[in-house]
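Quick one:
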Amino acid sequence: MIEALYIAATGMHAEASQIDTISNNMANLNTTAYKRQGVSFESLMYQAQENGATGSRNQSYGMGAVADKIVRFFEPGDIKSSENWLDVAISGKGFFEVELPNGALAYTRAGNFKLDENGFLSTREGHLLADRIQMPADSSQLRITDGGDVYATFPDSSEELIGSISLAGFMAEQDLDAISGGLYIANESSGSAFYSEPGDGGLGLVRQGYVETSNVDLVEEMLSLTMAQRAYEGNSQVIRAADEMMRINNSLRI
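Output:
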């Protein structure tokens, strides 16, 4: 009976992790380029139990479940027009590479850029785009082609090529480590980044004036939340039943 309490408790703990993950997905429904997460469950070790009918053969039973790891799904979100020339979305695979304050490199799909005090393209949090695109002080705006070439437009309608935006890709992007602000960093599991111009090397194109929305499906998350809640409640019922059976056993007098 003690095993039933333990097994049900592991189920409740695992489903609580699922509910927390779903809640985070729903909270980021409107976060630019947010990638939804899911929980990978794993069965705990099995124990052998002697078969009372034969007295010889053993039967095995599981000892519950555990939330093994949090996985992230990188399927692209919808691309929507923002009518802001500083917004750039990736249509397809790939990441923008940015520089962190400590000099390390990070990667993001959130291309809702701004200009810093020196005219460089940077993220909303102030991380400089690694391609070092600087808008000339006497230009009026930038024009970015689908292939990543960046032109400065001047008041007399002339243009000047000032740089290009490249994209980074990974062989195992689902293994990237997430940090704050929609940024990811590489690790041994994800492998090192490879680089290509937009549209080459299996990477997507860039679309100026567009932003990528979250890939969270509200209906799907609500269904998953309902299932997780029911599983949690079911495990709690098991604990109550096991507790009641133990109470009855303890009250028996032989």
